[in-house]
């Protein structure tokens, strides 16, 4: 059975990953979340320079959680936007949904947060 995936973020990394998820038989892309109001309602294929796939991007976190995905793959803004990232990620975790995020590097390597490279 395919893992049901929600991806949050359609920046550089998200647009690279979405086609791979669509092509992988072990994943089912059930939702895509965006922060940019201009992308809300836009077909995810269009956002990724692909043919339309019949799935519109949304900024409605509750609607994405209601899809009951197996996991959220979060490519949100950088750790500079920590409060928004933590709020979003926490909502999925509280709903019992696994989360993988590239946005919160200081959680992985706390010393980086204290002494960022120049």
From TrEMBL:
Residues 4-76 form the Dihydrodipicolinate reductase N-terminal domain. One of its GO terms (biological process) is lysine biosynthetic process via diaminopimelate. Keywords: NADP, Oxidoreductase. Transmembrane segments: none annotated. This is Dihydrodipicolinate reductase N-terminal domain-containing protein. It comes from Mycolicibacterium helvum. One of its GO terms (molecular function) is 4-hydroxy-tetrahydrodipicolinate reductase. SUPFAM superfamilies: NAD(P)-binding Rossmann-fold domains. It holds the Pfam family DapB_N.
């Amino acid at each position: 059975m395919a893992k049901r995936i929600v991806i949050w973020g359609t920046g550089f990394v998200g647009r690279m990953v979405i086609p791979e998820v669509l092509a992988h038989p072990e994943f089912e892309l059930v939702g895509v979340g965006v922060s940019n109001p201009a992308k809300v309602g836009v077909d995810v294929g269009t956002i990724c320079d692909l043919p339309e796939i019949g799935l519109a991007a949304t900024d409605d976190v509750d609607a994405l959680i209601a899809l009951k995905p197996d996991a959220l793959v979060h490519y949100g803004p950088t750790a500079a936007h920590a409060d928004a990232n933590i709020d979003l990620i926490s909502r999925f975790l509280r709903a019992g949904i696994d989360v993988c995020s590239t946005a919160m590097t200081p959680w992985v390597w706390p010393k980086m947060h204290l002494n960022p490279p120049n």
